[in-house]
Amino acid sequence: MKTDISLPARKTWMSLLAQADEGELSQLWQAFGSEPEFDWLRPPEAGGVMVRGRMGGSGAPFNLGEMTVTRCALTLADGTVGHAYVQGRSKPKAEIAAKVDALMQTKAAEDLRQAVLEPLRQAQRCRKEARAAKAAATKVEFFTMVRGED
């Protein structure tokens, strides 16, 4: 049975799943232990997408290069549809992400949030803090000494 979800909430968990470490995601999914019945709408398949960029975030768009992604879509027994797009060629990661997306739209959402999404969010936060600390360690403070007036 579907629950009401907001688009920003779905964007948040889809982003979290796409950025998650495959090993962490797989381990948390196995620990969750609820394998739903589903049918493939689109089995996992790897392909390329063109990545576009903008100079300064607001300049004219340009083609930066290609990136490999794996995508899939599935439908649960109750008709709920789950999608996934993940960087790289990991079909198992895409499959788990699609299952989580579908289940997050059902009554299992709160259990899944606590068992899978919150630990992923914590791990992501720790990685960001470690990266920030490493960058801060290389920060150089420049100052100018005032010389006497000549």
Outline of this structure?
The chain has about 150 residues and is an alpha+beta fold.
Description:
With 150 residues, this protein is of the alpha+beta class. The chain has one domain (7-133). The chain is built from four helices and three strands, in the order ααβββαα. It has helices at 7-19, 22-32, 91-103, 109-137; strands at 38-54, 61-76, 81-87. Strands 1-2-3 form a three-stranded antiparallel β-sheet. A hairpin with a 6-residue loop joins β1 (38-54) and β2 (61-76). α1 (7-19) crosses α4. The protein starts with 6 loop residues before the first helix and ends in a 13-residue tail after the last helix. The model has no long low-confidence stretch (mean pLDDT 90).
What structural category arises from helix and sheet content? alpha+beta
Strand proportion: 25-35%
- Strand order of the biggest β-sheet: 1-2-3
Mean pLDDT: 90
Number of helical stretches of at least 4 residues: 4
Distance separating the two termini: 81 Å
Low-confidence stretches: none
Determine the oligomeric state from the structure: single chain
Radius of gyration: 21 Å
Number of strands: 3
| Helix content percent band | 40-55%
